[in-house]
Amino acid sequence: MLSSRYLGTKALQIGKWIGFLIVYLSASVTLEVAGEYTKNEFLARHVLGVALIITAAALSLISWRYGKQLASNNPRRFGKSKLTGQKVVQFILIFVLMVAFQMLWSYLIAKHLLVTPENQKAVEADQIQLPVWNAIFSVVLAPIFEELIFRGIFMNYFFNKDNRLNNLLAVIVSGLIFGYAHEPQFSINWLMYSGLGCFLAYTYMHFRDIRYSIGLHFLNNFVSMI
């Protein structure tokens, strides 16, 4: 009885989590559609307006759900924490390590040991069509969406017990799923994206404050674009 109830709860949570991911992707796709009409300024402006409304609604929904989760069940006491000098130093160290990881990845691509990921090609193509709005989405909005979904909601649904094994699994599984969402095939690039996801997941777990992983994600995307 308890087993079937547990499986039913997890199945419902999986469905909800996928639903939030679809909501995020819908906002992203709508912005891509707007980019397809750049030659028609009138139509592009209206489609972009719809995309911005959908994005705002999607972000509000996902943020609201994350807040409700923490209010109802938050054994790790995730939330807003006081900024200290020690936390700043730790954050900078994680960021430096993440940049070094990115530089290694770029080096492997430059030396043709790895191919450029399809996700990166798509991002670069979008930048050509709507450079300002896609830059805002990639650098500012995408980190918020993805941290709420892949770290906040995901860990609270599936890894919400505060012990060493559970926390380690949360970081690894969150990273792997994040990698697959950006590179949907099992390859070296998938592992590299997963590595970035693990950096972000560790940051969220370490600071117990999603603003730190959002900030790290923001900086990573910003550095990648310049």
TrEMBL record:
<dbReference type="GO" id="GO:0004175">
    <property type="term" value="F:endopeptidase activity"/>
</dbReference>
<dbReference type="GO" id="GO:0080120">
    <property type="term" value="P:CAAX-box protein maturation"/>
</dbReference>
<feature type="domain" description="CAAX prenyl protease 2/Lysostaphin resistance protein A-like">
    <location>
        <begin position="130"/>
        <end position="223"/>
    </location>
</feature>
<feature type="transmembrane region" description="Helical">
    <location>
        <begin position="130"/>
        <end position="153"/>
    </location>
</feature>
<feature type="transmembrane region" description="Helical">
    <location>
        <begin position="12"/>
        <end position="31"/>
    </location>
</feature>
<dbReference type="InterPro" id="IPR052710">
    <property type="entry name" value="CAAX_protease"/>
</dbReference>
<keyword id="KW-0645">Protease</keyword>
<keyword id="KW-0812">Transmembrane</keyword>
<comment type="similarity">
    <text>Belongs to the UPF0177 family.</text>
</comment>
<keyword id="KW-1133">Transmembrane helix</keyword>
<feature type="transmembrane region" description="Helical">
    <location>
        <begin position="165"/>
        <end position="182"/>
    </location>
</feature>
<dbReference type="InterPro" id="IPR003675">
    <property type="entry name" value="Rce1/LyrA-like_dom"/>
</dbReference>
<protein>
    <submittedName>
        <fullName>Metal-dependent membrane protease</fullName>
    </submittedName>
</protein>
<keyword id="KW-0472">Membrane</keyword>
<dbReference type="Pfam" id="PF02517">
    <property type="entry name" value="Rce1-like"/>
</dbReference>
<feature type="transmembrane region" description="Helical">
    <location>
        <begin position="188"/>
        <end position="207"/>
    </location>
</feature>
<feature type="transmembrane region" description="Helical">
    <location>
        <begin position="88"/>
        <end position="110"/>
    </location>
</feature>
<feature type="transmembrane region" description="Helical">
    <location>
        <begin position="43"/>
        <end position="67"/>
    </location>
</feature>
<dbReference type="GO" id="GO:0006508">
    <property type="term" value="P:proteolysis"/>
</dbReference>
<keyword id="KW-0378">Hydrolase</keyword>
